[in-house]
Amino acid sequence: MKTNNLKQLFTQYKILALLVAIAIIWAFFSWKTDGGFTSARNLSNLMRQMSITGILACGMVFVIIAGEIDLSVGSLLGLLGGIAAVLDVTGQLSLPVSVAIVLACGLALGVLNGYLTAYAGIPSFIVGLGGMLAYRGVVLGVTGGATVAPVSDQFQVLAQGYLPPAFGMVLGVALFLLAAVLAWRQRATLARHNLPVPAAWRDGLRVALTGIVLAGFVTTLNSYEGIPLPVLMLLVLFGVFSYIARQTVFGRRIYAVGSNMEATRLSGINVRAVKLWIFGIMGLMCALAGLINTARLAAGSPSAGTSGELDVIAACFIGGTSMRGGAGTVHGALVGALVMASLDNGMSMLDVDAYWQMIVKGLILTLAVWADVATRSGQR
C-alpha cells in the first residue's frame, strides 16, 4: 500500500522532482566551478545550447506519445544544417530564401519518414535507423566531407543575436500575465463542468512561483546581453506545441493513437494521417534546429548532430514521456532537455573525460526509463 502511494506521489510531482534535481545539479557545478557555472554569461550559453535539444524535443515528444520513435533526427539535423551552409556560403542566397528551402526540405524528409512508417508499414525504429545512416551519408556528399564556412553575419544572427533588454522585460511580464490568465481559465472551466476546483492558494502559489522564475530568468539574461534569439524561438514553440497538445483535436488524437491505436482506428480516426504529420512536424523541428546549430557554429559541419538523437530521446524520457506511448508533456520534455544540457555544460567546464560524460548520460537515461516502468507498473 505504501509503495503504491509513493508511486502515485512521484508520478504526480515528477516535474517538481526534476526541478529539484536541476537545482542540485546547478548547485554542485556552481560549487565546483567557484560560481562560474551560474554566471550570467554561462547561463546564457547554457540556454542557447539547450534550445537546440529543446526544439527537437518539441517534435520528438509527439512522436513518442504516438507510440513511435525517430532515430534519424541527429543525422537529419546535420544534413539540413549542411544544406543551409551550402546555400549561404556557396549559393550566396538571401537568408529568407535559404530558411524557406531548408524548412521545405525538413518537412519533405519528415513526411517521407512518416509515409514509410504509416503507409509502407516499416517499423519506425528501422526507418529511423536507416535514415540515421542515409542522411549522414548525404550530408558527407553535400559538404564534400569538409566544413563549409564561414556563413554570413546575417545568418549567424539566428543563433548569436539577442533580444534587447527592454523587450526581454516586456516578454517576461507578458508571460506572467499569460500564466495568470491560463490558471484563471482552468479554474473557470473546472467550475463550469462541476469538477473539483483546487484551492485558490495553490493556483496562486503556482502563478507566484512562475513569476519569480520568470523574473530571475529575464534579469539574469539581461545582465549579460539579453535573451538569446534561439531561446525566444524555443519559448514560442513551447507555447505552440503546448496549445496543440492540450487544446486541439489533433493533439488529442496523438494521445489516443499512443494509448490504444486499434481502438482509435475503429473509432473512425485516420491513424495513418496522424502519424504522417507528426513525423512531418519532426522534420520541421530538425530543420529549425539545423539552422540554429549552423548559425551558432558559423559553419556547416559534416559531423553536426552526431548522437543528437540520444540526447533528445533521453530528454523526453527524463521529462516523463512514457516509452509505451500515450503519455507525456511538452514542458516535461523541455525540463528534460535542460537536465541534459546542464550536465553537458557542467561536465565540459570541469573537463570531465568524454567517456565519463557518456557513462553519466547513459545511466541517467536508464534511470529515467526505470522510473517510468516502476511508476506505471502499479497502475495497470
Automatic annotation (TrEMBL):
Keywords assigned by UniProt, alphabetized: Cell inner membrane, Cell membrane, Membrane, Sugar transport, Transmembrane, Transmembrane helix, Transport
Record-annotated membrane-spanning stretches: 12-29, 49-66, 73-91, 97-118, 125-146, 166-184, 204-221, 227-245, 274-292, 354-374
Compartmental location: Cell membrane
One MF term in the entry's GO annotations: transmembrane transporter activity
Gene Ontology CC annotation, any one: plasma membrane
Keyword Cytoplasm among UniProt keywords: no
Origin superkingdom: Bacteria
CDD domains from the UniProt entry: TM_PBP1_transp_AraH_like
PANTHER family in alphabetical order: ABC TRANSPORTER PERMEASE PROTEIN YPHD-RELATED-RELATED (PTHR32196), XYLOSE TRANSPORT SYSTEM PERMEASE PROTEIN XYLH (PTHR32196:SF32)
Main function: Part of the binding-protein-dependent transport system for D-xylose. Probably responsible for the translocation of the substrate across the membrane.
Protein name, UniProt field: Xylose transport system permease protein XylH
